[in-house]
């Protein structure tokens, strides 16, 4: 059992036996009539068609129905719409027909912009995506809002007057990008084998990307790298925008694709002549349903599996870059404190206990004798190093800060200041 990278708990359609992966075969599925209507309802065209049919029914009722009328002691049979009422449904029909033609033009334009390919090129594209190396990326943007003013000229009763308008503008101050390093855990493509496209005259394909893990070890490694990346950027400014995603290197990924067995000889119901002829006869919606019914559908998922070569003893690349020897300031990685509720609360509230003067003088001497994080005084050395100031989550504008100064007598002088 593995965990999908798209956030849903599902089982991959594969079998792992003796270290060998057996992928299943995926084929296009021909849709039923009800599924075609539910998937591509074309509700605008359907509503306009029903309204036009209603107007045509009203006009036909006016023309074919005869009612008895009495006028000047004369009894005769005439149409119920003889007084000009027939022009009301005719006016509505003309207006709806114009909207209907515009909607058909937009539908045809979207169809022309859709990417089309033959079956062989689709198989080639799938093979390239299976062989491509994945890149799971993160992006963090630090920003704040600046209060600005501008002069705006308004007009009232023919007189022009100028007012000052206050607005807030977003200013980006820092942009950082990172990606998941999976060199020590291994990667393998476990996508299904796509077959059977040549059995259908047209196939609509939808491609999606996801990733998964074989066990909890590589998954925790991914979560640790992700948390370390965002924790390093957090606190650089008032706000932080986080983005993440997955892409395939050196691959032009397209989410939707329409495959034909022979693009030069498309089916008659997909031709431009058949489409506009049905549109003029107000039969565009039935033709669209027929097109969807004769088109097969397949949702193909590109799946990358991490952790096949995972070794528990392999250190993280970020841990290798960490200096060895005297750890000035006893820096504890943020990821190691994520499971500690009390430590997390102290970091968010920025209320760590400041060591006394005598404790501060002895902290650097203790680091050479013991590097264990289980020391009771190690929780106080986080705020000692002036170059690594602990910042709380999401600093607010106009917040009240507190600066602490350690005196030689061992006391702590507290000074409050306002910062913007």
Task: Give the arrangement of secondary structure elements.
Elements: E1 3-4, E2 14-17, E3 20-23, E4 25-26, E5 29-30, H1 33-39, H2 43-64, E6 67-71, E7 74-78, H3 87-113, E8 116-118, H4 119-131, E9 134-156, E10 159-179, E11 187-189, E12 193-194, E13 202-213, H5 216-233, E14 239-248, E15 256-260, H6 272-280, H7 284-293, E16 296-306, H8 317-320, H9 341-349, H10 357-369, E17 400-406, E18 412-418
Parallel strand pairs: 4-12, 8-15, 13-16
Antiparallel strand pairs: 1-13, 2-3, 5-16, 6-7, 9-10, 9-14, 11-16, 13-15, 17-18
Helix pairs in contact: 2-3, 3-6
Keywords: Membrane, Transmembrane, Transmembrane helix
Membrane topology: Multi-pass membrane protein
Family: Belongs to the TMEM151 family.
Provide structural commentary:
- The structure is a single chain.
- With 420 residues, the protein is α+β, with helices and mostly antiparallel strands.
- The protein folds into two domains: 24-322, no CATH class; 323-418, no CATH class.
- Helix content is 31%, strand content 30%.
- It has helices spanning 33-39, 43-64, 87-113, 119-131, 216-233, 272-280, 284-293, 317-320, 341-349, 357-369; strands spanning 3-4, 14-17, 20-23, 25-26, 29-30, 67-71, 74-78, 116-118, 134-156, 159-179, 187-189, 193-194, 202-213, 239-248, 256-260, 296-306, 400-406, 412-418.
- Strands 1, 5, 8, 11, 13, 15 and 16 form a seven-stranded mixed beta sheet that branches. A three-stranded antiparallel beta sheet has the order 10-9-14, with helices on one face.
- Helix 2 (43-64) runs antiparallel to helix 3 and helix 3 (87-113) runs antiparallel to helix 6.
- It is flat, with a radius of gyration of 35 Å.
- The two termini are 51 Å apart.
- The model is unreliable at 1-22, 316-348, 350-354 and 372-420 (pLDDT under 50).
- Pfam families: TMEM151.
């Amino acid at each position: 059992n593995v965990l999908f990278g798209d956030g849903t708990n599902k089982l991959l359609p594969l079998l792992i036996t003796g270290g060998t992966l057996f992928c299943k075969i995926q084929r296009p599925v021909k849709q039923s009539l009800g599924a075609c209507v539910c998937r591509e309802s074309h509700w605008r065209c359907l509503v306009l068609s029903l309204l036009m049919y209603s107007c045509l029914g009203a006009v036909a009722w006016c023309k074919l129905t005869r009612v008895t009328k009495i006028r000047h002691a004369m009894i005769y049979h005439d149409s119920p719409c003889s007084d000009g009422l027939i022009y009301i449904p005719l006016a509505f029909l003309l207006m709806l027909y114009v909207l209907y033609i515009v909607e058909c033009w937009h539908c045809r334009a979207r169809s022309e912009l859709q990417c089309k390919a033959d079956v062989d090129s689709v198989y080639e594209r799938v093979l390239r995506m299976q062989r491509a190396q994945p890149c799971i990326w993160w992006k963090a943007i630090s920003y704040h809002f600046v209060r600005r003013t501008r002069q705006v000229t308004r007009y009232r009763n023919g007189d022009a007057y100028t007012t000052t308008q206050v607005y807030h503008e977003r200013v980006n101050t820092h942009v950082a990008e990172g990606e998941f390093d999976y060199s020590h855990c291994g990667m393998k493509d476990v996508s299904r084998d796509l077959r059977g496209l040549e059995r259908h005259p047209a196939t609509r394909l939808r491609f999606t990307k996801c990733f998964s893990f074989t066990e909890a070890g590589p998954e925790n490694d991914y979560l640790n790298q992700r948390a370390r990346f965002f924790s390093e950027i957090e606190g650089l400014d008032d706000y932080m925008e986080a983005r993440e995603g997955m892409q395939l290197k050196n691959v032009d990924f397209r989410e939707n694709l329409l495959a034909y067995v022979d693009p030069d000889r498309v089916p008659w119901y997909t031709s431009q002549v058949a489409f506009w002829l049905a549109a003029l006869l107000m039969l565009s919606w039935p033709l669209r349903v027929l097109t969807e019914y004769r088109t097969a559908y397949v949702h193909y998922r590109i799946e990358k599996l991490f952790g096949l070569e995972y070794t528990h003893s392999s250190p993280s690349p970020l841990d290798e870059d960490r200096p060895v020897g005297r750890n000035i300031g006893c820096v504890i990685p943020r990821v190691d404190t994520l499971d500690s509720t009390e430590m997390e609360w102290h970091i968010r509230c920025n209320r760590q206990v400041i060591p006394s003067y005598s404790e501060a003088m002895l902290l650097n001497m203790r680091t050479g004798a013991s590097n264990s994080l289980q020391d009771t005084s190690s929780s106080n050395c986080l705020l000692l190093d002036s170059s690594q100031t602990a910042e709380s989550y999401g600093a607010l504008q106009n917040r009240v800060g507190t600066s602490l100064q350690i005196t030689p007598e061992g006391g702590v002088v507290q000074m409050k200041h306002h910062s913007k």
